[in-house]
Amino acid sequence: MKKLLIIFFASFIMMEGCGGVEPDGTENNKPVVPEEVLDFNVESLGLTGEFNKIIGAQQDFSVDFFKSVAGWDTHRNVVVSPFSIMSDLAMLSCAATGATHDELVKGLGFADFSQEMIARYFSTVYAKVKSDTAVVYNSANALWVNSSLATVKQTFADDEKLGFNVDIKYVDFVKDPVIDITNDWISENTAGLIGRALDAGPEGSSLAFLTNALLFEGKWDIAYDGNLQSHFTNINGAVADRDFFIGPILSGYNIKGDNHDDPAVIDLRYKSVVGNAMHMFVILPPKNVKLPDFIQSFSAFKWRELYSKLNIVDEENAQEAFLLPKFYNTYDLPSNVCIDALRGNGISLIFGDGAEFAKMTDMRMPVSKISQKAILQVDKSGSKAAPDTAADKDISDMYVLDKRMKSYIEVNRPFLYMITDSYGSIFFMGTIVR
């Protein structure tokens, strides 16, 4: 039985930035939240209101997929890109037919939408983020076809290029140095951050494999302070010294823990020059709830509810601050875990011998492998040109904890985070447990 391998390599870095001033000199310090939080502002995407449902489905799938992965790996820092996986599975649905297609789009939550509408959603969101010159965003897809065994139908190739910007590349899986060729492509499309992702290539009997490279570099919208050393209690109860950065909370919820049943939420916005800011949301569970238990009780509906409760203030009136640990994490998502998570979402036929991808090729070929490698770096915002001496200061002397600040929240125990665009699509989800 011929096989189709799917390999996703999602890589992104959040770098240090230089404050919140636009090129025209105006300030850009206020987080933007859609006026109607549960009805995301998709009209500004140039899409119809029906795409609210697509964004909701994307959130539902993302949270459910992440819950499965995080439930499997509770003692390591996890980061995955459900948006990347969804994008390429949606791309694969363009090749699927019959029950394979129906189950795939249903598992993604897209059963009520046409293939054209699905492709338009992903291509438009990609284009919108990529148009922002304040961030570096690159998404590249390639379908590698075994030239000695298969060809791809031209209509499929044209549709994929138009909707998902997929390059169709033919290589001989036996004669050509497939590993080196693919690793070079991955390195090129992740700015060298992932230099060698593949250690073993596809079998000579495999028909094709699919790769996705995703690079995101963003700067915080305002400058934060650091370095500050404090304690972080790991998932196993061990206490370790960590470097933190610190800043005013301009958008958040339940920072003082007044609602004991809800988590605290901190909204950190990335700089944007087109008003389409990406956000990182830090979600700290209630003190009496362990992170794994919190994640398993979490849902996209709960996230939308929390999002609707965000309180927004301007920088001059900020009275609360956060302390967040710096972290750098590389995470390899095992294929079996990824496949199990997809099966949990009702996607299984693509892995069986009866998988139908007749729009791509007349040959039967199940998906045999899905992998993802993600890299995440989170640090303080601000210029690195001058030495950072904040570590020599007491907390009470920090700029962001001056007389205006009445309280602060220290994220000093395991937490959940997510990266979204301003319309609600979840690009990345992760945990920091140590």
Describe the structure.
This protein is α/β, with parallel strands linked by helices and 434 residues long. Helix content is 25%, strand content 27%. It is built from 9 helices and 18 strands. Strands 1, 2, 4, 5, 6, 14 and 15 form a 7-stranded mixed β-sheet that branches. Helix 1 (51-72) packs across helix 9, helix 2 (82-93) packs antiparallel against helix 3 and helix 2 packs antiparallel against helix 4 (115-130). The model is unreliable at 10-45 and 381-400 (pLDDT under 50).
Structural class by sheet pairing and helices = alpha/beta
Give me the Rg, rounded.
22 Å
In helices, the fraction of residues equals 25-40%
Q: Helix tally?
A: 9
The strand count comes to: 18
Note the gap between the termini: 43 Å
Q: What oligomeric state best describes the polypeptide chains here? A: single chain
Unreliable stretches (pLDDT < 50, length at least 5) are: 10-45, 381-400
Write down the overall mean pLDDT: 77
Shape: globular
Strand content: 25-35%
Mind describing the biggest β-sheet? 7 strands, mixed
Question: Secondary-structure element order, as H and E?
Answer: EEHEHHHEHEHEEEEEEHHEEEHEEEE
Summarize the structure.
The chain has helices at residues 51-72, 82-93, 98-108, 115-130, 154-164, 178-189, 291-297, 300-308, 335-344; strands at residues 4-10, 13-14, 78-80, 136-146, 166-171, 208-218, 225-233, 239-248, 251-253, 264-269, 279-284, 311-312, 320-325, 327-333, 367-378, 407-410, 415-420, 426-432.
